[in-house]
Write a structure and sequence with these properties.
The protein is α+β, with helices and mostly antiparallel strands. It has 4 helices and 4 strands, in the order ββαααββα.
Length: 115
């Protein structure tokens, strides 16, 4: 008789839009880092990502969202920066709520796995 095997269901989610993947955990982390640091440059550094790549991701998210998720702040004495819009903050919250529901479902279904 074989030993009882333990299986788990692993799930990764992303939100798609007509042109393909729109929001996944990487972009969510970028948004969170922009919120934390107040700049795309510093968010990119924090993630060990090229500024150009971070900027392209922000541009792409802003273009494909119903409303921009990040807004640039014009430079002044302290220089410019960036911050999340209300839509950007809602995107983070919505993503994590969806992820939690799906992870909870996967955990429940794991209990029924037998092969």
């Amino acid at each position: 008789m074989k030993e009882n095997k333990k299986y788990t269901i692993a799930v990764r989610i992303w939100i798609e839009e007509a042109d393909g993947p729109f929001l996944g955990i990487g972009k969510i982390w970028l948004l969170e880092n922009i919120a934390k640091t107040g700049s795309i440059t510093n968010a990119a550094k924090e993630m060990k990502m090229a500024y150009r790549q971070a900027w392209q991701l922000v541009e792409e998210m802003n273009k494909r969202a119903e409303k921009p998720l990040v807004e640039k702040l014009l430079g002044g004495k302290g220089g410019g920066g960036a911050r999340l819009t209300e839509a950007g903050e809602r995107a983070i919250q919505t993503f994590y709520e969806l992820e939690k529901k799906i992870q909870d479902f996967a955990r429940k279904e794991t209990l029924n796995l037998k092969f």
